[in-house]
Specification:
The chain has helices at 13-26, 56-70, 82-92, 100-110, 116-129, 151-162, 175-178, 182-186, 229-238, 255-262, 290-298, 305-308, and strands spanning 40-43, 166-174, 193-196, 201-203, 214-216, 244-248, 269-274, 301-304. By secondary structure, it is α/β, with parallel strands linked by helices. The protein folds into 2 domains: 13-53 and 145-197 and 223-308, HAD superfamily/HAD-like (Rossmann fold, 3-Layer(aba) Sandwich); 56-140, no CATH class. The protein has a 6-stranded parallel beta sheet, sandwiched between helices.
Length: 319
Amino acid sequence: MTKNILPSWRASESRKNIIDFVTKVTKENGKDYVEPKLRIATFDNDGTLWCEKPTIQIEFLKYQLFKNIHNNTKNIHTNTDKKISQLVNDFLHGEVKMNTTLKKILFEQIEGNISLSEFKENVEGFLAQWKHDGTGNEKLTGRTYKELTYEPMSELLDYLRANDFKIFLCSGGSNDFMRVFAEELYEIPHENVIGSFAVNRYVFGAGIEPEDTFFYKQIANFHNTSHGGKPEAINAHTGRIPIFSAGNVLNGGDIAHLTFCKSNPLQSFQLLINHDDAEREVAYAEKNDPSIKAGKAQGWSIVSMKNDWKKVFRNPEVV
C-alpha cells in the first residue's frame, strides 16, 4: 500500500516516480537493488527544503553586517581596500547580486576571525528574531524560518531515511550556518552537512586546558559549494556519487549537482523543483530555462510545486 507514503504529494507522476525508484533500489535480489551503504541522497537547501525568497543566509549576512557597523566592529568603512568596501555597501543596498567573489568577501567580514561558538550565537540570535518580509508574496509576511520549510520535502526525507538512505544537506550556504538548524528542521546531523566552507583553526597549546580549546573561524582555502562546487564538495566529503539528488530552479545552481548524480552507474534519481506556485509560495523562473532543459534532456523528475503538492509548508495552519 502506497497511499500513506508522501501524504502531502498529489497522486502525480512525480510521486509515482519517487516511490517506484525507492521500491526498485531497496528490493533485495532485484536487478536494480542498491545496498544500503551506497544509498546516498543529497539535498540542496534554499528553494529545495525551505523558501529561498528571500534567501535566509543572505538576510543573515545583511543583518550581521549592519550589526557590526552599528557596534563599530569589523566596520567595512575602515577597510583599506576601497573596492571591497564599495562592493559590500552595494550588497547592503541591494545593488549587486551574490557571486563567488562577493560571497568570499562576506564570509571574511561575517565568519572570519571569530570563534565558532560566537558565530553560532550570532546565527541563533538572527534566526530567533527573523521573520519573512513578504518578498514575492505578501501572504508569507511574518512567518519564521521554521514555518517556511516544505512539508512534502520533509516527508520525502523521512521516506528515504525509512529505506536506509543516508541523507546529506548540500547547499551554497555555509557549513556552520546550516549546522545551526539542520538537525532541528531536517534531522540531518552536523556531519552530513556539506556547505560552502573554509578550514577552521583549532586553538590549543600551553596554558590552555583541554576543555578550553576552541575552533577559530577563518577564510583560508574557501570553497563555494554552489554550481560546480557541489559535486566537488560531495566527492570530498563522502567519496561517493549519490543515487538520489534534489535541487531546484533558480540560477542553474543545481545542474551540476543533479548531473553528478545522473553519472552514477547505479540506478539513480534526480528531482528538480519548479517554483510555479504564485498563490502559495513565490513563482520564479530562469532566463531561457537552463535547469528545466537539462532536466528534460537527462530524464530528471521535474516537480511542479503548484500541481504536485497538496500543501507547501510544514506549519499545519498554512497551505
